Amino acid sequence: MAWNRERRIKPLCPKSGSYALVTGGSEGIGLEIARVLATKKWNLILVARNVKKLNKVASEFKEEFSIEIEILPMDLSVPGSGKELYNKVTNLRVNSDLRVELLVNNAGFGAFSNFAEEKITQIVAMVQLNILTLTELTHLFGKHMTERGRGRILNIGSVAGFAPIPLAAVYSAGKSYVNFFTRALAYEMNPHGVGVVNLCPGATKSQFAKRADMEESLLFKLPGFVQSSRAVAEEAVAHTLGAAPSCVCVTGRLNQIFAILNPMLPLSFAMQAGHVLFV
Ligand SMILES: NC(=O)c1ccc[n+]([C@@H]2O[C@H](COP(=O)([O-])OP(=O)(O)OC[C@H]3O[C@@H](n4cnc5c(N)ncnc54)[C@H](OP(=O)(O)O)[C@@H]3O)[C@@H](O)[C@H]2O)c1
After folding, report:
1. Rounded to whole angstroms, how far apart are CA atoms 145 and 103?
2. Are residues 192 and 149 in contact, defined by beta-carbon separation less than 8 angstroms?
């Protein structure tokens, strides 16, 4: 089978009833992806835990962009929350022609810490949110997209998933899963008219570094290295909605250079470099 199976995908523009579902759409990269989509007249379903922030974004976007917005406050690190979210979206469809045609699996968090000393609840929540809920949502919404022969799935991986990173063992392994899972899925789903994209940002300005206790790390201090959430979002949306999107979108020039060099580096070097940058 030829890799140019991708070429069957046409650019995706919203029609009446088209919605984009963005997890983690209240802050950071997810918020900016939602904003870029709103400028393109996509109706939105935004999911995050903080209902106040979701309400603020919804009222701001409704006024500025004249689009339909649904907010669904949920904790996606709870087992079964993917199915619960899917059921909530199904309920929204009663009396409307709402269809999720773009799924953005963005919600996620990292922790930079010694694995043995980390709280097990934190580790399990990270695996649940970054891996399991993302997979569950991809399956539930992806099935409808392939049946309709139309749709896009944008899964947020990371350059942190290119190599195992000591002190970010669970995070880097989780993002490696997202990177590999999404690329394989693109091959499966593209012939059915569904574009699947693995976004790989590097260090990006958002609440992520603070939450991961990484604000003082070399990675987030290197001049010219940290991208804005808006820049990442613009690259991501342009790539994802375009014709025949390739399955990987590494954002930022420096990250793209790293992505090319990475397979040539000995694993031990890549691990050490990751460790140094994350400290
Ligand atoms: N920033 C970076 O340097 C960087 C680099 C590479 C990849 N990434 C990836 O990019 C994605 C977005 O990160 P970000 O930088 O935008 O981080 P962020 O600023 O912390 O935003 C995270 C978003 O996800 C939501 N969220 C977090 N935990 C959640 C949960 N349990 N259930 C539902 N929603 C939840 C947050 O809202 P609530 O807190 O209200 O729930 C927020 O809207 C993540 O997958 C991250 O791994 C980030």
Report:
1. 10
2. yes
Is 177 one of the catalytic residues? Answer: no
Helix (H) or strand (E) holding 221: helix 218-221
Catalytic residue among 86, 171, 177, 187: 171
| Residue 10 within a domain | no
Residue 7 located in a structural domain:
no
Decide the pairing of beta strands 194-200 and 151-156.
Answer: parallel
Ligand 1: centre distance to CA 121 (Å): 18
| H or E element that contains 25 | none
User: Identity (one letter) of the amino acid at 203?
Assistant: A
Indicate which CATH number applies to the domain containing 132. 3.40.50.720
Q: What percentage of the chain exceeds 70 in pLDDT? A: 97
Where is pLDDT greater, at 2 or 150? 150
Look up the domain containing 130 and give its range.
15-278
Residue 4: its pLDDT value, please? 47
Is the Cβ atom of 207 under 6 angstroms away from ligand 1?
Answer: yes
- CA-nearest of 165, 179, 164 to 134 is 179
Region 174-195: what's the mean pLDDT? 96
C-alpha triplet 147, 148, 153: angle, nearest 5°:
90
Overall number of domains in the chain: 1
pLDDT at 197: 98
Residue 53 lies in a domain: yes
Per the structure block, which two tokens stand in for 179?
């990177």
Cα R_g (the chain), whole angstroms: 18
Instruction: Point out the ligand 1 atom lying closest to the alpha carbon of residue 207.
Output: 19
Q: Which is the closest atom of ligand 1 to the Cα of 27?
A: 43
pTM of the model: 0.96
Task: Assess if residue 4 is contained within a domain.
Answer: no
Cα(103)–Cα(127) distance, integer angstroms: 20
230-268 confidence digits (pLDDT tens): 999 999 999 999 988 889 999 999 999 999 999 999 999
